[in-house]
Design goal:
By secondary structure, the protein is mostly helical. It is built from 41 helices and two strands. Helix 8 packs across helix 38.
Length: 530
């Protein structure tokens, strides 16, 4: 589904052209005055920086044009007042980068830039070879439909590999054996339960259905470390429990090993956060969580208040209003009854933009109870730039606030709360899950002849970049048609990687008004203050 990003203008106030520069300059000065306060208020410490198939609602967009965000409108002026804009324009690396014409062109593609900001190193490396970048875009488009499906059986297989990462790593080192077992997991599991895993691996001929390569099995039997990991783990039974998914992936040994390797990366991140319970959910809704991970602070805020945001996702119009103006709702922090009363009455100024939506929310007792028990209003206010940018990007807002994904997160709220203690680590785990899911989708496609060796090789070299592209192939196809923009990513690789650690950049990169704000003179005025 292709759509152009638009920004809701229903709550804008026109600024007379003769006064716009004066108003904007004053707004920026005001932002400086509250800058020190904003550092603690909006960016509090969040930890070290550092089988049913349902169609997914992919977010796609063209580039931002004049009809999408007009210079001088309220969205641009409001963005330039934010602490995030002030903080970012104080960053010397960003100021140098923003003067690059190619990078300015890239910023006009907020969907692509959101993904790039989340994983700048991977994209900078890929952009160093324009032909490889264009090929990656084609590969991403080829796997997009499969990779963005919320496939429960595939997700269960990824979770199984993550939960038994060492055993599957041992199998990945022997891909022919891995493929033979995956294609006949039930038969092999039955025999191994009777004779033991080690005996089964040393005597594959006893499992007629396996029909494996005797020499390959012999090599595995001689690998004492791999045999120890397989004997101690539960990989064989895990494959049998998800036999259909593994049978599909097992047709192509290279693709199967690729999926297992990405699941191992996910396992490492989840284990460090004591959040392995989140593996299946992250994999099933990989593209939704990938959109959330565009801003680590946004992802952490959603995960820490999973029950409340899941409830609010069933009332998207109300949630959109709240995300557009988080500070206006900060007054309801710890005052759930007052919020309910205001929503019912429709008299609160902040709710008047869509009073009917808040009335529907107020009538949902379950949702109101979840909101009252949460810190959702504080989370909105403390991460205002990220939520405001998300609200300004209609496609990403719909995708990141997908009700199925947020309700799944709420069901695993303990695991996600643990994961969210480190915002950057949480976002990295989401990106690893996205890469694991895309790799598993490529493996399934290879089984039916839809993915060739070239695509699988590209996936193995750039799994996170291609999986991010697969979530929004139209945006990256547009970027690939701008060689100057692609070249700027490689030319400014160090600065781009440095910006990847700046939460203000992550918050603003997805905002369609950001490029317009810089073009309108915002960067020049901000630079003049330095």
């Amino acid at each position: 589904m292709n759509a152009t990003v638009t920004v809701d203008r229903s709550d804008r106030v026109s600024v007379p052209r003769s006064n716009s520069r004066y108003w904007t300059t004053g707004a920026i000065i005001a932002a400086v005055a509250v800058g020190a306060y904003g550092v603690g208020r909006i960016y509090p410490p969040q930890g070290p920086s550092a089988g049913t198939i349902a169609p997914a609602d992919r977010y796609v967009s063209a580039q931002v044009g004049a009809k999408d965000v007009q210079l001088g409108d309220q969205s641009v002026a409001q963005l330039m007042q934010t602490d995030a804009f002030d903080l970012l324009t104080r960053d010397s690396s960003f100021r140098a980068l923003a003067r690059d014409a190619g990078f300015q062109a890239a910023l006009q593609n907020p969907q692509a830039m959101a993904a790039i900001a989340a994983n700048p190193k991977a994209f900078a490396q890929l952009a160093a070879d324009p032909a490889a970048f264009a090929a990656a875009v084609r590969d991403a488009n080829a796997i997009s439909a499969a990779a963005t499906q919320a496939d429960a059986s595939r997700a269960a297989a990824i979770a199984a590999m993550a939960q038994n990462a060492q055993a599957f790593a041992a199998l990945s080192a022997h891909p022919q054996v891995f493929s033979a077992i995956a294609r006949n997991a039930d038969a092999f599991a039955n025999y191994s339960r009777a004779a033991g895993v080690a005996a089964a691996l040393r005597n594959p001929q006893a499992v007629a259905a396996v029909g494996g390569d005797a020499a390959a099995f012999a090599r595995l039997a001689a690998d004492s470390q791999a045999m120890a990991r397989l004997s101690q783990g539960n990989a064989i039974n895990a494959m049998a429990q998800n036999a259909k998914a593994f049978a599909a992936m097992g047709v192509n040994a290279q693709a199967l090993a690729l999926a297992a390797n990405q699941a191992a990366a996910l396992a490492a991140q989840l284990n460090s956060a004591n959040a392995m319970g989140a593996a299946g959910t992250l994999a099933q809704y990989a593209s939704n969580f990938g959109a959330m991970a565009a801003s680590p602070q946004l992802f952490a805020a959603l995960a820490q208040n999973a029950q409340a945001f899941a409830a609010l996702s069933n009332h998207p119009q109300a949630l959109l209003v709240m995300a557009k103006n988080p500070q206006a709702f900060a007054q309801f922090a710890g005052r759930g009854a007052d919020f309910a009363a205001a929503a019912r009455s429709g008299q609160a100024q902040a709710m008047q933009q869509d009073a009917a939506a808040f009335a529907r929310l107020a009538a949902d007792n379950q949702a109101m109870a979840a909101v009252a028990k949460s810190n959702v209003f504080d989370a909105l206010a403390r991460n205002a730039p990220a939520f405001q940018s998300l609200a300004a990007n209609a496609q990403m807002f719909r995708y990141a606030t997908n009700a199925a994904a947020l309700n799944a997160m709420a069901r695993d709220s303990a695991a996600f709360a643990s994961l969210a203690r480190n915002a950057n680590a949480a976002a990295s785990a989401a990106l690893s899950a996205q890469a694991a899911n895309a790799s598993a989708a490529a493996a399934q496609m290879a089984a039916s002849g839809q993915a060739n060796a070239q695509l699988l090789q590209a996936m193995s070299q750039n799994p996170q970049a291609i999986s991010a592209m697969a979530s929004n192939p139209a945006a990256f196809a547009a970027l690939a048609r701008q060689p100057a923009a692609v070249a700027s990513l490689a030319r400014n690789a160090d600065a781009l990687v440095a910006l990847g650690h700046n939460p203000a950049f992550a918050a603003l990169a997805m905002n369609p008004s950001f490029a317009a704000a810089l073009r309108s003179g915002g960067l020049a005025e901000a630079t003049a203050r330095q």
